[in-house]
Write a structure and sequence with these properties.
Largest sheet: none
Shape: globular
Number of strands: 0
Strand content: under 5%
Helix content: 55-70%
Order of helices and strands: HHHHHHH
Radius of gyration: 17 Å
Structural class: mainly alpha
Length: 182
């Protein structure tokens, strides 16, 4: 992504830390949580790689099509999984957003990313609206409610739903930062 280097490095750190935690969540005893954590780890590390400031590293031309293929495959997997639950639709939208960003970055010259455009493209605006709503809803879901006696102590730290929600919130915020920086 192109923009100020300091915000790029903060995005890299946030997304990499989120991806690392999601990798740890893959040790869960619950199959569905392991599957979701794997997809979220891929998203976190992919977003971290895309957020590296171009002043530090300019990816080779072949990197953007590779991102598009990887996240296209993740999107197909999310589409298949969406048959069993609507929460997979968010993973589908996230993967589609990553494919979109990779395609835009592949098609634009290195010096022109984020410059010289007149307004926000319609798809970027729609994704910004979606992720804004997602972030607001995720934030509300983090508001503490009365804990069930023994429930928090029985779950391992990798199975705590509030931590996985916080990770999803972080990635939603990162997506909001990355979309306008294209």
């Amino acid at each position: 992504m192109h923009g100020p280097a300091s915000s790029g490095w903060l995005l890299v750190a946030l997304c990499a830390a989120t991806g690392a935690y999601c990798l740890l969540r893959m040790r869960s005893g619950v199959e569905e949580q392991r599957r979701a954590a794997g997809g979220e780890a891929l998203m976190g590390f992919g977003m971290a790689a895309m957020a590296v400031p171009t002043t530090a590293f300019t990816p080779p031309e072949w990197a953007w099509p590779v991102y598009a293929v990887v996240f296209g495959a993740a999107g197909l997997r999310a589409l298949w999984a969406a048959r069993s639950g609507r929460h997979h639709v968010h993973h589908l939208v996230g993967a589609a957003a990553m494919v979109y960003m990779a395609v835009v970055m592949a098609g634009a010259p290195a010096h022109a990313h984020g410059h010289g455009t007149s307004g926000v493209p319609l798809l970027t605006g729609a994704l910004l609206l979606y992720f804004t709503g997602y972030v607001l809803l995720s934030g509300v879901r983090l508001i503490p409610v009365a804990a069930v006696a023994g429930g928090a102590a029985a779950a391992g730290w990798g199975d705590r739903p509030e931590l996985s929600r916080a990770c999803r919130l972080c990635m939603g915020i990162a997506m909001l930062a990355m979309l306008p920086a294209m």
